[in-house]
């Protein structure tokens, strides 16, 4: 392993600050010359920044700097207002996140109403969903799954970081009529997605 560690740490910091999206270990390794344990360097930087105003976090299959979560309230004055998702779009996103891979027909069955194509178009435009594997049933319907950008946007390392349904109910974010209540509670979205991808 090469020994000019301070220089490579500076280069790594600059790459992470300049990037508009999280960088994977592979992407970083491809951009630096020398024999470095990039994963170990990232962990070192993560520890170095842990007490500062921003943290190095692993999110959506890559690494990125994020403001410290405990400073969110202090930073509200500089935050850009977020566009609120229409209710139907939020419902569809929640169903996909918690029940993926899921077909359009299954989403509509949970919601009890048909879903306008524009709902999926918006989620595709945001980069939060993508087509998943086709079901091995008559008609071979396509399924929908979440993307790394979804994880990145919501600051999740993986799907296991999604709050459980019980947590959402306890926080008062779900009522008795919520579409999410109709989803099975005995599986985790990451488990069902992994099963679909291995099929």
Question: What descriptive keywords fit this protein?
Answer:
199 residues, mainly alpha, Arc Repressor Mutant, subunit A, 2 domains, three-stranded antiparallel beta sheet, two-stranded antiparallel sheet, 9 helices, 5 strands, 43% helix, globular
Plain-language structure description:
By secondary structure, this protein is mainly alpha-helical. The chain has 2 domains: 71 residues, Orthogonal Bundle (Arc Repressor Mutant, subunit A), CATH 1.10.10.10; 112 residues, Arc Repressor Mutant, subunit A (Orthogonal Bundle). 43% of the residues lie in helices and 11% in strands. The strands form 2 sheets. It has a 3-stranded antiparallel β-sheet with strand order 3-5-4. The protein is globular.
Q: What gap, in angstroms, lies between the N and C termini?
A: 39 Å
Q: Got a strand count? A: 5
| The first-level CATH class name of the largest domain | Mainly Alpha
Task: Name the shape in a single word.
Answer: globular
- Can you summarize the main beta sheet? 3 strands, antiparallel
**CATH evolutionary superfamily of the largest domain:** Winged helix-like DNA-binding domain superfamily/Winged helix DNA-binding domain
% residues in beta strands: 5-15%
CATH topology grouping of the largest domain: Arc Repressor Mutant, subunit A
Number of helices: 9
**Helix-strand pattern, N to C?**
HHHEEHEHHEEHHH
CATH architectural name of the largest domain: Orthogonal Bundle
What would the average pLDDT be, to the nearest integer?
Answer: 81
Largest sheet, order of strands side by side?
3-5-4
How many distinct domains? 2
**Which percent bin holds the helix content?**
40-55%
- Helix/strand-derived category reads mainly alpha
Unreliable runs:
176-180
Q: Radius of gyration in whole Å, from Cα?
A: 20 Å
């Amino acid at each position: 392993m090469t020994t000019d560690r301070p220089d490579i740490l500076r280069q790594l910091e600059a790459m992470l600050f300049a990037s508009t999206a999280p960088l994977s270990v592979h992407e970083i390794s491809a951009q630096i010359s020398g024999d470095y344990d990039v994963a170990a360097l990232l962990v070192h930087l993560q520890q170095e920044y842990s007490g500062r105003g921003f943290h190095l976090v692993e999110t959506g299959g890559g690494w990125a700097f994020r403001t410290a979560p405990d400073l969110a309230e202090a930073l509200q004055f500089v935050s850009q207002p977020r566009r609120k998702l229409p209710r139907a779009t939020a419902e569809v996103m929640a169903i996909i996140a918690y029940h993926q891979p899921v077909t359009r027909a299954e989403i509509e069955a949970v919601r009890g109403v048909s879903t306008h194509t524009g709902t999926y178009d918006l989620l595709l435009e945001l980069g939060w969903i993508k087509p998943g594997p086709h079901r091995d049933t008559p008609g071979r319907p396509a399924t929908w799954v979440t993307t790394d950008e979804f994880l990145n946007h919501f600051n999740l390392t993986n799907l296991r970081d999604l709050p459980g349904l019980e947590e959402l109910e306890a926080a008062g974010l779900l009522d008795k009529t919520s579409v999410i209540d109709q989803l099975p509670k005995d599986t985790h979205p990451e488990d069902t997605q992994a099963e679909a991808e291995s099929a």
